[in-house]
Amino acid sequence: MIKILINSVFIFALLSSTSISNADWNQVKQTHNVKLFRSTLEADQYISRIEAEVNAPLQTLIDVVKDPNACNKWLYRCQTAHHISQTDDANLYLYYVRDYPFPLKDRHGVLQIQVEHQSNGEFVLNLELRKNMTPEESTLVIPETFKAQIRLAKITDDKTKVYLEHQLNPGGKIPNWLKQSIHEEFPFNSMLGLIESAQSRRHTNH
Question: Where is the START domain (predicted)?
Answer without folding.
Answer: 21-182
